[in-house]
């Protein structure tokens, strides 16, 4: 599907102040050049392989398949990447691009801290300055990740505006970029923001679906019937879907965070509860109040706790090419525990949202069908919070 002028159907675009126009245009031109540059692509591949530990494995979930008694289940293991999630794919790509553009400083937003840690990691690797904007509330909830970022040499700026969470961190990073664009690249963490970011992040994450395709051909001699992934901004899902968009027999399912339920105010399910709007430089679906203001969102999973969804997902939804379902905190926590004891894999609580939906649909599918679940990250970071959810207090 095309993204002419950064449009995805009626979504996407560049809704930004004049002061940022030069920066995004410079980025667009640089990316158009380097994406076809063989040296750039070779460097990128070498970093994916030698530093991030790609290709990530495709693991057959034998016990889960047997237990559910229906479709055959495979897990795409982004949890095995360096820093423990898919975020590194995008960060390596954008840092390499920024370096080629002569930038010496990276700024980034982060919610739970996963993207901030990945950004600080690759900035250290490449000898770049790194500053991370993080909601003040999140710096308290994720103190360990704040320490990690500092250990890696990054500066962390707590953001006290608004609800002091992820959306405010994105706003602050955009403001900071406006102030200093000459030496600074804004390393956005998901398939969102103004064009060309949704395209760039998707392209760097698309390595996930290219690998799934070749690994499936090798293991099963055919493509999967279903590919599913959790959706916050939507980068791991876009990466897992992208190479299959033209394959009409591959069902694509995005799993949003319903939080305490889509009929409560404590939800982050954008497709289920949102309306079209414009925010953070893009047109897409957003959770809004009765006055069209961005609504506060909630999920047990900090990585899915964003009031919008990337514009290409909005288009895939409108076109009915992908389905979007909502998964509650309760269901995700059960899936977190289920995958741990059934396969010996502790998934990120974000990824557990996709596992939960697979648990729902696999039993009624026939045994010759194949589901691939993208395990976007590992769950070590979530153990303390899930223990607390279950009424246990463990030392963090
Ligand atoms: C950040 C994160 C997500 C959510 O971001 P997307 O852009 O929707 O992929 C999901 N899983 C993990 C492990 C994350 O760190």
What report would you give on this structure?
It is a single chain. The chain has a six-stranded mixed sheet, with helices on both faces. It contains 16 helices and 14 strands. The radius of gyration is 19 Å and the shape is globular. The protein is α/β, with parallel strands linked by helices and 396 residues long. Bound molecules: pyridoxal-5'-phosphate. The site of pyridoxal-5'-phosphate has 19 residues, from α5, α11 and α15.
Order of helices and strands: EEHHEHEHEHEHHEHEHHEHEHEEHEHHEH
Could you give the count of β-strands?
14
What is bound: which ligands?
Answer: pyridoxal-5'-phosphate
The residue-averaged pLDDT reads 96
- Global morphology: globular
**How far from one another are the termini?**
45 Å
Q: Which structural class do the helices and strands define?
A: alpha/beta
Number of helical regions: 16
Segments where pLDDT lies below 50 for 5+ residues? none
Quick overview:
By secondary structure, this protein is of the alpha/beta class. 43% of the residues lie in helices and 18% in strands.
